Amino acid sequence: MPNPPANPILDLVGVGAPIMDLVASVPDSFLSEAGGEKGGMVMIDATEMRRLVGKLPLPPAITNGGSAANTTYNAARLGLRTAFVGKLGNDALADDYRARFAAAAVGTGRFKRGLLPNACCLNLTTPDTQRTMRTCLGAHATLSPSEITPADFAGARHAHIEGFVVFNRDLADAIVNAARAAGCTISLDLASFEVVRGARDWLLPQLGRGIDVVFANEDEIRALFPDAQDAADYAAHARRLASFGGVAAVKLGRDGAWIARGKELHRIAPVSVADAIDSNGAGDAWAAGFLAGWLRGRPLPECGKLASLLGAETVRHMGPLIPAAHWPAIATKAAAHLPS
Q1: Is 313 part of a structural domain of the chain?
Q2: Residue 295: which domain range?
Q3: Coil, strand or helix: which one is 201?
Q4: Distance between CA atoms of residues 292 and 11, nearest Å
Q5: Could you tell me whether strands 156-162 and 257-261 are parallel, antiparallel, or unpaired per DSSP bridges?
Q6: Which residues, 6 or more positions from 282, have their beta carbon under 8 angstroms from its beta carbon?
Q7: Is residue 123 part of a domain?
Q8: Measured over all CA atoms, what is the biggest interatomic distance in the chain, rounded to whole angstroms?
Q9: Each residue's pLDDT tens digit, 164-193
Q10: What is the model's pTM?
Q11: Which among 114, 119, 199, 252 has most CB atoms closer than 10 A?
């Protein structure tokens, strides 16, 4: 275990791509334009992004996004002291992104700046609320391992890392090594089954070295343990993931979740949602709720209940974030799961 900072000034530092989300509702037939598997994430270049956006039935909505960024943003809304590490671009989208984070009280002093346009992600939401992502990393793709140091995590208790950084193994190594050197505990969101399929040889040794909390959904955990005899036994998957020594959170969408740690195993009941329209960002919000409880020392079932509350509210709205007008009611419900 790392040695935590004596007088932490931050509860959580998020690490990942500061992506502006382009959010669009599309019929299933549109996914043939995007290629790849439904529900996954594929990296594309700026030319392909322009082509897909040009084919949309209606112009997309624009909101700040990014997996770890969404988690960090929501964690700040829940009262954690947060900052974010990622590389912004040189355009108006980048300036807007920084301003949105500053307005949410997320520390922006650890952002890097690049020369290319800001990263963006096209989120294609089909009628079943499933989201399929196509991402152009822009300036964030130029983030170098040499730009990441323990100073990025100085004074922080915890680092939350998105699995998408594992597409660049050297960068991923630099991030986890710097976080550990700064004394942070670490959580990792596996992010996508494509990430896991391509990076099991990196992920499994890192789990062995010590990751304190791992978040996975059904597709991701099956990709991590493809040799499981019963692919649908998510309780067993959670126990196996927790056997590496940390907390395992296996999210099952509308079916709730399993959380395991050591000999503990908890079934987290889902929060029923009758009007779900978009799953984009729900897993990130789930992680924020969980970490807001876990970093305050709450029991795992309470962390799971808070996580499910945020995830369920997120799917009721288009885009990855709960709209500001709906946040006060959710904050009141969240307070019941947090110490006063």
Answers
A1: yes
A2: 10-18+66-117+140-335
A3: helix
A4: 9
A5: unpaired
A6: 253, 311, 312, 314, 315
A7: no
A8: 55
A9: 999 999 999 999 999 999 999 999 999 999
A10: 0.91
A11: 119
Q: Do the Cβ atoms of 48 and 134 come closer than 8 Å?
A: yes
- CATH number of the domain residue 330 falls in: 3.40.1190.20
- Pull the structure tokens for residue 113: 């700046």
Q: Is the pLDDT reported for residue 268 higher than 80?
A: yes
Residue 111 is assigned to a structural domain of this protein = yes
Name the H helices within the chain. 31-34, 46-55, 67-77, 92-103, 169-181, 193-210, 218-224, 234-242, 282-294, 300-314, 327-335
Q: What is the pLDDT of residues 112-136, one digit of tens each?
A: 999 999 999 999 999 998 889 899 9
Q: How far is CA 59 from CA 25, 32, 41, 96, in A?
A: 10, 18, 20, 19
The amino acid occupying position 42 is V
In the numeric block, which tokens belong to residue 253? 């969408």
Number of domains in the chain: 1
Type of residue found at 185? T
In-domain check, residue 259: yes
